[in-house]
Every structure is written in structure tokens, then in C-alpha cells.
Write a structure and sequence with these properties.
Blueprint (H helix, E strand, L loop, with lengths): L16 H42 L3 H12 L4 E2 H8 L3 H13 L3 E6 L2 E9 L1 H21 L5 H12 L10
Antiparallel strand pairs: 1-3, 2-3
């Protein structure tokens, strides 16, 4: 007879696998929550830096940049309600930004024949030139802020995020 002590396995009832499954789900849930908080923190830090750089270097705002980016992608222009949908903001939010862009000569309003309630907005030549300069700077800032991320890592993280259920189908 051996006198070695063997570690005792805890006695487990037949249905204890459900307990382990519950712990695994709880652990997964906590990891997902930590991931969300990390993503939120990083997003907020990057967004704050971009907002400041746009303000200092272009006397602009991030919402203004977003409106110009949407209009830049659609050179024929967008109806105001289409612009709101693309940016996922209210018509009122977009209207104020567009008003200021019109005042600055970056955007023009075009009446839509046969629909007095709708207006098409598009970047002017000056607006396209300004946005091109802003976009080039923005890309450089983002690259600098994410300097430690390799191309492979960026692609992999993007693919992982792309598959999240929160993705609403606007795939690039």
C-alpha cells in the first residue's frame, strides 16, 4: 500500500457540468464586458485626439468632417434625409452643420425638381479641396495614433470586429 497522498477530486454530482457551463458563460460575459470597456476607452481617446487636431489645424469639428466625408464619397450629392441616415444622426443635427458649410462656401444646396420638400447637398469644388486636405491629415493622425498596430494585426482586428452582431450591414 502506498503512503503517498493523492489530491482528492471533489465529488461532483452528475449534473455538475451545468455548473461549469454556467461559470464559463459568466467568464465569457465578463471578458466581453472588459473588451467593450477597452474598445470604448481606446475609441474615446482617439476621438478626443482627432477632435482636437481638427479644431487646432482646420478650425473644424468632427461632425463637420463626417458630413464632408459623406458628401465627398457621393460626388453627385445627397438628399438631407439620406445624409442623416448615413451619419445615423437626426435631420436637425445635419441641418445646422450643412448651414455652416454653405455659409463657408464648402457645400451647395440644390433644389430637387418636383419635390419642394427635399434638397440635395453636395460639396463645392472648394469644399472638395478642403476635405481632401483634411482627410489626408486625418489619415496621418490615425496612422500615428495606431503606430504600434501592424498591418496584419489591423486586418485581423478589423475582421473580428466586422463579424460582431452590432455591425448593421454597412460593410466596406
Amino acid at each position: 500500500m502506498s503512503t503517498e497522498c493523492q489530491p482528492l477530486e471533489p465529488a461532483t454530482p452528475a449534473g455538475d457540468s451545468l455548473g461549469k457551463e454556467s461559470l464559463n458563460k459568466e467568464s465569457l460575459s465578463k471578458e466581453r464586458l472588459r473588451l467593450w470597456l477597452r474598445m470604448l476607452r481606446v475609441t474615446r481617446q482617439i476621438e478626443a485626439e482627432l477632435r482636437e487636431k481638427l479644431r487646432v489645424e482646420f478650425d473644424s469639428t468632427l461632425p463637420r468632417f463626417d458630413v464632408m466625408a459623406a458628401l465627398f464619397r457621393d460626388s453627385d450629392g445627397l438628399k438631407m434625409n439620406e445624409l442623416s441616415k448615413r451619419l445615423r444622426v437626426s435631420n436637425g443635427n445635419v441641418t445646422g452643420i450643412v448651414e455652416r458649410l454653405v455659409d463657408d462656401g464648402a457645400v451647395e444646396r440644390i433644389a430637387i425638381e418636383g419635390d419642394r420638400r427635399a434638397t440635395l447637398v453636395r460639396l463645392t469644388a472648394a469644399g472638395r479641396a478642403t476635405f481632401t486636405e483634411m482627410a489626408r491629415a486625418h489619415e496621418g493622425w490615425v496612422n500615428a495614433l495606431l503606430d504600434g498596430v501592424t498591418e496584419d494585426d489591423a486586418h485581423h482586428i478589423g475582421e473580428l470586429l466586422h463579424g460582431l452582431p452590432a455591425d448593421t450591414g454597412e460593410r466596406q
